[in-house]
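Throughout this chapter, every protein is written as a compact record of paired, labelled lines. An example of such a record is reproduced below:
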Amino acid sequence: MNFRTKGNKYEKVAAGYLRHLSYELVALNWCCRWGEIDIILFEDDTLVFVEVKYRKHNQFDIDEVLTPKKRFALKRSIFIYLKENDLFDKNWRFDLFYITDSVKNIGKLEYNHFRNILL
C-alpha cells in the first residue's frame, strides 16, 4: 500500500469516527496551493479542521507530528479556506486525530482526538 493510499484509508477511518460522534462532514482532502486539510467538519456551530496522523507506535510527540513547516502550511490553508468560503465570521478550531496500532489488541487501532490545538 503506497503512502497516499494509506493516508486516505486513515482519513476515512477518522471521518467515520467523527461522523459517528455527530460531526457533519464538509470535505475530505481539501487542497489549495499552500497545502491540504485532511478533514473539514462542523460540530454544532464550530467549523473544525482536522489533521489525521497514523503511526505504528503510540509514542506521541507533537513536534514530530506538527513540525513548524506543517503548522505554517496548515495556517495558510485554513486562512484560504475561510476566505474562499466567506467564513471569517464562523467559530473554528484545529484538531489532531492521532491513530496508532493497539499494543493490547493486535490488528486493532487506537484513536486519540486532540481538540483545539494551537497552531
Remarks:
- Residues 15 and 80 are 22 Å apart (CA to CA).
- The two ends are 31 Å apart (CA to CA).
- DSSP finds three helices and five strands in the chain.
